[in-house]
Amino acid sequence: MALQGISVVELSGLAPGPFCAMVLADFGARVVRVDRPGSRYDVSRLGRGKRSLVLDLKQPRGAAVLRRLCERSDVLLEPFRRGVMEKLQLGPEILQRENPRLIYARLSGFGQSGSFSRLAGHDINYLALSGVLSKIGRSGENPYAPLNLLADFAGGGLMCALGIIMALFDRTRTGKGQVIDANMVEGAAYLSSFLWKTQKSSLWEAPRGQNMLDGGAPFYTTYRTADGEFMAVGAIEPQFYELLIKGLGELILLKIQQETVSCQARQTLLSVKQWPSLQPKSWGFVWL
């Protein structure tokens, strides 16, 4: 396993931190999760491959045990807002003085600097501030609050795991640890680099929900089927679109007024102005 021999101390928190530590454990790291007194179980259900112990970090004895753990560990992962660890006398200045090779990973919502750094939040708040939320949703409707995957897990947990891996690699050359400031706002914004880099292209020239990749195109969206379920259609390329038309047969042929599957018919269907009229609310077939 790639991370065999790497030891990680995870301070328990909500989903992003446990997911980050689980990724490290999945690839061979020895992860010890430090739970708070009174914790009965792993709320996030992401404890695979970890061991755990209970420490009261607000008490000198508990803080001392954590410091001893960090003296012989490679990574500390903490999920708190700015200033919490420093208040407990467990900040990076202290722990890295005792173990210069320690990688001190801080995973928070808004980061360790700025006016939001001491505030609490959730996935939807981080997505809104990153700008990504403004791009998700149907035309004429409010932006959708998606599952808490984009900011919490992708922009937070996974990006933090990547930072830890890069810090471990850098340590092989420098012999020193470092502080990682991973946060879900900047992580989600970074994940959406393609979106912002192509903002002025034809991909996103229409309002939300009216573009090719956000549900505006009849060949790249979802439909309810006759059995009450749903199907996803993603037939952007000409050859795949032609297969879709042929596969649906008479149903779609009626929709395009019995036109043959030709280049001319496809160009008609790809006309942006005609997309709304080509999206029935449901298609009368069963998706098997």
Please provide a written account of the structure.
It is a single chain. The chain has 288 residues and is of the alpha/beta class. It is 36% helix and 14% strand. It is built from 11 helices and 8 strands. A 6-stranded parallel beta sheet has the order 3-2-1-4-5-6, sandwiched between helices. It has a two-stranded antiparallel sheet with strand order 7-8. A hairpin with a 5-residue loop joins strand 7 and strand 8 (230-234). Helix 1 packs across helix 6 (149-174). It starts with 6 loop residues before the first strand and ends in a 19-residue tail after the last helix. It holds the Pfam family CoA_transf_3. It comes from Pongo abelii (Sumatran orangutan). Belongs to the CoA-transferase III family. This is Alpha-methylacyl-CoA racemase.
